[in-house]
Amino acid sequence: MLKKKPSAILGQDINKENELIEGLIDNKDLAYETLVRQYSDRMYAVARRFFYTDDDAQECLQKAFIQVFKNISSFKKNSQLSTWLHRITVNEALMMLRQRKRQNTTSLEAFSQQYNEYGERTVFADELGNNLDDTLSNNIEVLFEKSEAKLSLSEIIYQLPEKYCNVLLLRDIQEMNTKETAEILAVSEALVKTQLHRARLLLRAILEQEDRVSVENNWKVN
């Protein structure tokens, strides 16, 4: 069972945080050094959950600190500094992902789950009847032939349309709740739930396609 901090210690923590914030607003070098020393590890951990490489996470961290220094004067003192830093890091990560238009990305916007006459799930298809498996086949096969090792889950998520990629990263990778995700993405909570449901279905379809490609390649080798 977690023990609560005594009110006196908690009050000291709040006072120290307020002093740090005042120092940042007054552009004091010591305050900047303290911020980086106390929060860089936590902010890096947030960034690392978005990126496959350390270099990308470090770049995100640097950009996040730049935004912190630029916008510290707008920080609301009744908010938690750690929460504010977390949100800035997440926004910078999403911005970086948005700017990096990954190659070989298949547009999945038009596909939806199809059902048979018994109400059982069948395939994903668009309005013209094009099967998602057929559409993804060449794209996914090229992706997985680039390396003997399978792509990480995050790398596969990056292949989804931006809105589905973002909601999966925030809800399933960052483990944010629906309300927090909606606030960061500036959409309604209902839309977050809808996009998350569809994103998970599309991700599952891609993972199933990956498994089929792996089996087929093993069959060819054997």
For the structure shown, list the relevant keywords:
222 residues, 9 helices, mainly alpha, two-stranded antiparallel ribbon
Q: Can you tell me about this structure?
A:
The chain is mainly alpha-helical. The protein has 9 helices and 2 strands. It has helices spanning 7-25, 29-48, 54-71, 81-99, 132-145, 153-157, 162-173, 178-185, 189-221; strands spanning 112-115, 121-125. The chain has a two-stranded antiparallel ribbon with strand order 1-2. The chain is elongated.
Uncertain ranges: 103-109, 135-150
Q: Please summarize the sheet with the most strands.
A: 2 strands, antiparallel
Helical region count?
9
**Average predicted confidence as pLDDT:** 75
Large-scale geometry: elongated
User: How much strand?
Assistant: under 5%
**Structural class category:** mainly alpha
How is the quaternary structure best described? single chain
Radius of gyration, whole Å: 22 Å
- From the N-terminal CA to the C-terminal CA, the straight-line distance is 55 Å
Q: N-to-C SSE series?
A: HHHHEEHHHHH
Strand order of the largest sheet: 1-2
Number of strands: 2
Share of residues in helices:
55-70%
